[in-house]
UniProtKB/TrEMBL annotation, chain A:
Lineage summary: Bacteria, Bacillati, Actinomycetota, Actinomycetes, Micrococcales
E.C. number: 2.2.1.1
Protein name per its UniProtKB record: Transketolase
Family: Belongs to the transketolase family.
Cofactor names: thiamine diphosphate
Chain segments annotated as coiled-coil in the UniProt record: none
Domain of life: Bacteria
Pfam families according to UniProt: Transketolase_N
Organism: Microbacterium immunditiarum
Ranges for domain Transketolase N-terminal: 40-281
SUPFAM superfamilies named in the record: Thiamin diphosphate-binding fold (THDP-binding)
Signal peptide (from-to): none
Keywords: Thiamine pyrophosphate, Transferase
GO MF term (any one): magnesium ion binding
Catalytic class of the enzyme: transferase
UniProtKB/TrEMBL annotation, chain B:
Pfam families xref list: Transket_pyr (PF02779), Transketolase_C (PF02780)
Keyword Transferase (UniProt): yes
Superkingdom, taxonomy of origin: Bacteria
Organism listed in the record: Microbacterium immunditiarum
Name assigned to this protein: Transketolase
UniProt keyword annotation of Transferase present: yes
Species classification: Bacteria, Bacillati, Actinomycetota, Actinomycetes, Micrococcales
Length: 292, 320
């Protein structure tokens, strides 16, 4: 992002390498979903896996060995139910141990649960889970950065469904009113709510126009195309600009596993050993198809 | 300029919010003030530190969320506005964004209780019950304008969040001579000594309780008045001491629902400690939406005005 790179971010991954990492992230997600008996929000994790990969392995200026570095970019997970995807993406970046996540996830005294808790896991920026809360938090962080004259970014990942919450639009207005060009929202636009396909129940369209009407810089991409994600990150305006940016990433809930894709049954769930093998095979087949 | 006070004088408690924050803004360069369109009391801070003042417009939820974001980044944010809206519209933001990570966000507001002609949309009468239910939250309710400044000052060094409730804040009685009492968050104030019964109260009704005690003194009975301005954490030691020293006779008076506020907090302490009183009366708003009228008229209508306080106190004094 054109600013002083923190340790470990000097060498940036190629698109090919990022695609490999995203594949590995999905594999790791499925493994966790296959070993943990409770529900994992696997549908929305898979839809956001490429975005998480692009952010934690390319876009975000962060240093896993110095999590409180004031120059770090801040990442706010507004769609808190995708916590496990964030934990694993962060583990792959060196923040935590993946084994530690898989072995303790959801268990008593684990730092890793369904929604992120800053108190239990200081490596994450904030506690989220209830939808519609992340963007106001990010606005506060971006304001603070502005006030200090810092040039880091604040990046917030939202689900499109949660933008039904009014608090999101309150924050959208506040961000523009305060000219927070250091704020970037990514919307994981998978077009599914928990119990319905979005447009069946709520008219979101014309979705990008709604953000434009609020004065934001709107970038529309295919959220599973790593080169587009990288390009969107590369093209972000300077942090001292006046306009906050939203990257609306079109995605597929359950992406990469054919029986989960666009399937309302897979908002959250768990895989037994047999279904895990089936899911991993589907993931591999999907990748092969896309590589050809 | 320091604000001076005279005992018994009517002052605007809410004006103290702005002047105190403006003064503290110099000492704390990380102090921010945010408001959802209720900025009149904050003009002094806004004009002195415009870069640390944020009016988000009518958006209580974002206001609290933004404050939490600022606090995550090492700032001390104050959210100031009307409590009926802050305590309810933004309740989940206060719980999830502020209390859950235990951030030093201060919610300071006006319009606690039945503050006049607003109607039930504009009365914060459930707020103390809601705030007391939140883990990590310190809950205060203040009537004396001098104390408003003092509590804000003390709150600056607190780790977690605090809720500071005023009445409408336009006309509040100076209850204490400056320096008369040691004011400390978490400790009640004995506003009037007495031995035969205790009236516990907070905020705007402290003045009324003092009047009631004065009236009853004419009967030759000695009534203690405790300004329990911190509802959470509650001063257990003082409650137990009053049970012992004032013959187990309690009246709890508050401009809040009669259940869920201070009376409930005190009853919890007594039950947990296995203390049986001789008599206990709670005066507050019953389960009704209160309607319109002047503050005093509404208190009379709903059974917690001056006459009711005197009558209830006489009842507990007469109980055997």
């Amino acid at each position: 992002m054109g600013r002083t790179p923190l340790a470990g971010t000097e060498q940036r991954h190629s698109v090919q390498e990022l695609e490999d990492l995203a594949f590995e992230l999905r594999q790791k997600l499925l493994h966790l979903c296959g070993t943990y008996e409770g529900a994992v929000h696997i549908g929305g994790d898979l839809s956001a896996a490429d975005i998480f990969t692009a952010l934690f392995h390319y876009g975000l200026n962060v240093d896993p060995s110095d999590i409180a570095n004031p120059e770090r970019d801040r990442f706010v997970l507004s769609k808190g139910h995708a916590a496990v995807c964030m934990y694993i993406a962060m583990a792959m970046r060196g923040f935590f141990s993946y084994e530690g996540i898989v072995q303790t996830y959801g268990q008593l005294d684990s730092a890793y649960g369904m929604h992120p808790c800053k108190v239990q896991l200081p490596g994450v920026e904030c506690s989220t889970g209830s939808l519609g809360h992340g963007l106001p938090l990010a606005v506060g962080m971006a304001l603070s950065a502005r006030h200090r004259g810092d040039d880091h970014r604040v990046v917030c990942l939202l689900g499109d469904g949660e933008t039904g919450e009014g608090s999101v639009w309150e924050a959208v207005m506040a961000a523009r009113s305060n000219r927070l060009g250091n704020l970037v929202a990514f919307v994981d636009r998978n077009r599914q709510l928990m119990t319905s396909f979005a447009e069946e129940r709520v008219s979101f369209e014309p979705y990008p126009d709604k953000w434009r009407a609020f004065g934001w810089n709107v970038v529309e991409i295919d959220g599973h195309d790593m080169s587009q994600l990288v390009a969107a990150i590369d093209a972000l305006p300077d942090t001292d600009s006046d306009t906050p940016t939203v990257v609306i990433a079109e995605t597929v809930k359950g992406k990469g596993v054919d029986f989960m894709e666009r399937n309302l049954a897979w908002h959250a769930g768990s895989l037994g050993a047999e279904d895990l093998e089936r899911a991993l095979a589907a993931l591999a087949a999907s990748r092969e198809k896309e590589t050809v | 300029m320091p604000v001076t006070f005279t005992f018994g004088e009517m002052l605007s408690a809410r004006s103290v919010i702005g002047s105190t924050l403006a003064e503290l803004g110099a000492d704390y360069d990380n102090l921010w003030v945010l408001t959802p369109d209720i900025g009149a009391t904050l003009v002094e801070f806004r004009d002195t530190y415009p870069e640390r003042f944020l009016d988000v417009g009518l958006a209580e939820q974002a206001c609290v969320g933004i404050a939490a974001g600022l606090a995550y980044d090492g700032n001390i944010p104050v959210v100031s506005g009307m409590l009926p809206f802050l305590s309810m519209r933004a309740l989940e933001q206060i719980r999830t964004d502020v209390c859950y990570p235990n951030l030093p966000v201060k919610i300071i507001g006006t319009h606690g209780g039945l503050v006049g002609n607003g109607g039930s949309t504009h009365y914060a009468v459930e707020d103390l019950a809601l705030m007391c239910a939140l883990t990590n939250m310190t809950v205060t309710s203040i009537g004396d304008p001098l104390m408003v400044g003092e509590i804000i000052r003390q709150s600056m060094t607190m780790q977690g969040p605090i809720y500071i409730r005023l009445a409408v804040g336009k006309k509040d009685m100076v209850l204490y001579e400056p320096g008369q009492h040691k004011v400390r968050i978490g400790k009640g104030i004995i506003a009037r000594e007495g031995t035969d019964a205790t009236i516990f109260t907070h905020g705007t009704t402290v003045a009324q309780a003092l009047q009631a005690a004065e009236e009853i003194a004419k009967d030759g009975r000695s009534v203690r008045v405790v300004d329990m301005f911190t509802l959470k954490p509650i001063d257990e030691e003082l409650i137990l001491r009053c049970a012992e020293e004032t013959d187990g006779r309690f009246v709890v008076l508050e401009d809040h629902l009669a259940y869920g506020g201070l009376a409930s907090r005190i009853a919890d302490v007594l039950a947990d400690r296995g203390v049986c009183l001789t008599a206990f009366e709670r005066l507050g708003i019953p389960q009704v939406y209160a309607g319109f009228g002047e503050d005093e008229q509404l208190r009379d209508k709903h059974g917690y005005g001056l006459k009711d306080t005197i009558a209830a106190t006489r009842r507990v004094l007469a109980a055997s």
